[in-house]
Prior knowledge:
The chain has 165 residues and is mainly beta.
Amino acid sequence: MFTILLLFFGLNFMFSQSPCDTIEDYRRFDFWLGEWEVFSDGNKIAESSITLTKGNCGIIENYNPFNNAGGSSISYFDAADKKWKQEWVANGHVSHYVEPNHYTEGEMQLVAKHIDQKGNEFWLRMIYYYDKKQDSVRQLMERSTDNGVTWQKVFDGLYKRKTAN
């Protein structure tokens, strides 16, 4: 009887824990989880809620700026490619971001290729996420029209964790 109980509780624990909970690659973006106020140039411009998906294998952001409709993303580690990816949906557009093979700074970088209304290809928003270890995350977005040779800043935002009142 003891063996049956041990087997039952052991199997129950094994099946209740997601494999994504214990594999380090799936946890590399956890610094971004939380409830945030977003600032740019010292002004509060948005609020953002970043949570785990069911099963803890992905991260969902609901970004709510004060001046437009905002958007949502799902970020996830693709075990087949061994890269983080993000699907960002806003204003009728979808951006497909992929972690580059190499990056020089920050805890996370994602890059998306786009085509403008005239058919010109460009890299939109090479994204750097910096964990400031002080309950803040910096999000720097850049744009390149020369296949990533040079980058121009598009957005520099600071996510500050909301505090309990």
